[in-house]
Amino acid sequence: xxxxxxxxxxxxxxxxxxxxxxxxxxxxxxxxxxxxxxxxxxxxxxxxxxxxxxxxxxxxxxxxxxxxxxxxxxxxxxxxxxxxxxxxxxxxxxxxxxxxxxxxxxxxxxxxxxxxxxxxxxxxxxxxxxxxxxxxxxxxxxxxxxxxxxxxxxxxxxxxxxxxxxxxxxxxxxxxxxxxxxxxxxxxxxxxxxxxxxxxxxxxxxxxxxxxxxxxxxxxxxxxxxxxxxxxxxxxxxxxxxxxxxxxxxxxxxxxxxxxxxxxxxxxxxxxxxxxxxxxxxxxxxxxxxxxxxxxxxxxxxxxxxxxxxxxxxxxxxxxxxxxxxxxxxxxxxxxxxxxxxxxxxxxxxxxxxxxxxxxxxxxxxxxxxxxxxxxxxxxx
Length: 381
What we know:
By secondary structure, the protein is α+β, with helices and mostly antiparallel strands. It has two domains: about 1-60 and about 85-230, no CATH class; about 245-275 and about 300-380, no CATH class. About 35% of the residues lie in helices and about 20% in strands.
């Protein structure tokens, strides 16, 4: 069953959700859009295609306490941080960000399970929103993601690493003109829909009315996919990138050329929906110690620093690590799934215009040159 609600009534929808559980959605603050907690004063922005940061930090916070140690005389009391116990809703996630959570699932839900992340995944419901007008920096299609079918699992296609069967959104939504169309996809989604039936409106009880609503959504999907086909990176080739390409890619001399403009600022890792590296630190409160974890970046010179130093001693090695992980190491260990979802945030935010697209294209160019030279040599023979 499909439902709809007028755009002008979305505030009532958000209010209804927030009465029952915490609601996260895209909020505009200081000219930027990021996911935050809804309130009556919040400036909700569903029209901006991508938040600056991905909404992954709702499930994997940028900083979170793990436990607290307090000293009482000669006794130490260890108090673990409480796990997420209340249900919450994340409204407005795009398909690329939903697939980003599927990547994080592979990391944090594998043994040993990260209980903090697992609790948030268990209690969180996702309402995914279709991308009405994808932008030039987007290339989710390369990884089998359909931004017109929000939150659906990627189509299985050779070379895309789309064999993952976890994840997906609980509700799919399309904002078409002045109406938002809503369709539950999971048991969580059905439960949320049932709680909102006083706000949501049936698209019609008759088969003909349901058909007309379905056709309207189908036209929207067709228009979105037509835009995607025209985007500059939608047909980027992943030929040669897979879990078996370790030696070929690792030893390529191209890395020495590609890394040089890199500033090692880590911006790419902090806006990325799939980066999962973190550091664990202690904070002395004066009456105890808080142990917490916070996001870290493989682009930093002190990342994984140990007593003997860093095992990647040059910026070239650290630059190579980032892209090898996303395109080789991760698919090698996760049934072919790539650790990139084509959101394009790194394309937009890198101050040196370095990003995964540039790396893929450079390797493809070199491969084509080598093939052309080989063919030319064959013709001469």
